[in-house]
What we know:
Layout: E1 4-6, E2 16-20, E3 28-37, E4 44-52, H1 55-69, H2 75-81, H3 83-93, H4 100-110, H5 117-129, H6 143-151, H7 157-176, H8 206-215, H9 218-229, H10 233-236, E5 244-250, E6 257-264, E7 274-277, H11 283-290, H12 302-309, H13 311-318, H14 325-337, H15 342-349, H16 356-364, H17 366-373
Amino acid sequence: xxxKTRFGRRPNNTGTVVKLSGKRRTPFCARVMSDERxxxxxxxxxxxxxxxxxxxxxxxxxxxxSLKKSNSISNEEARNIAPNxxxxxxxxxxxxxxxxxEIYDILYEEEISKLSKSAxxxxxxxxxxxxxxxxxxxxxxxxxxxxxxxxxxxxxNGLQVHMKVLCSKIFKxxxxxxxxxxxxxxxxxxxxxxxxxxxxxYPFTIEEIKKLKALDTSxxxxxxxxxxxxxxxxxxxxxxxxxxxxxxxxxxDGTEMRISYIVTGSKTEAGKNRVIxxxxxxxxxxxxxxxxxxxxxxxxxxxxxxNKSVLPKINDALGTKHTMHDARKTFATLCQMNHxxxxxxxKVLGHKMNDITFDVYTNESKNILYKEINRIKI
Length: 378
């Protein structure tokens, strides 16, 4: 076994210099404690930051290492003092810090892959927007980098909010796994683009709704169901017949009555498995279009309904340029026009409520939801 000569003891956690045995061109070895521990003993491992010609050079290396580790000097200052030595220290001592994209890939395997297909598709789309940051080590990305990225993208408020959520997940993972300090997670300070009311979406007018009723086609029926329920397009597509309840007895508010409702929902916790009353004006349409035994128009994909079978025919008949989301916007407008209780409105739309009393109350009473929504008059 090679013999080593150990020199005078240095202060704790500042490293040590040993002289390696044998004839060597650089016999003096500078060693420091790493953050990595032996898997069996649990003790911290020693790592060599370099071998040097003289003991003084090795001691200088330890001094530079100590100054850098304690953040007493910056990387630039350390590199100016001893450029070659600094690069050697960094190469030997810096553990691998994952990149922005590497952390995302880990999160995808651990969390995102277990979500619904629409959620997975959303995350897959958002991460692509961050391509300029993909190969940056997470500890090198500053708030200025993030804010500059958000400021210089063409994306609007809605997409930037989702992108900020993804950023927060990635930086939170980096904090938990000690790739960065808690104070280095700046994601809560990111400012997203200002919300602007979209000119693309506008509600159906009362006259247009009346024309849809007069059309009396399957396409018009489907659109009226969307308008009167406020459902997202995906929430009715291929809906299971068992989730549609017609004239069911209910007395959950103390009054026994027959009510009709749908159980559906997606996207958020507040929106999942929620009760959506079937307004009396569309009960026949629901029976005819959603409960029919043969092939239903709704048994399709979003692209087909939005671009082929339903929406284009509605726009042609009305001479409009509506989107599928306009039906949901119309429902919210009708609720406001008819002074529908704000908590019932949020409950039916699947929006989160901050008042837990009303949240529980409206969740427990189908009758209240049904009676309130049927106050909408056209």
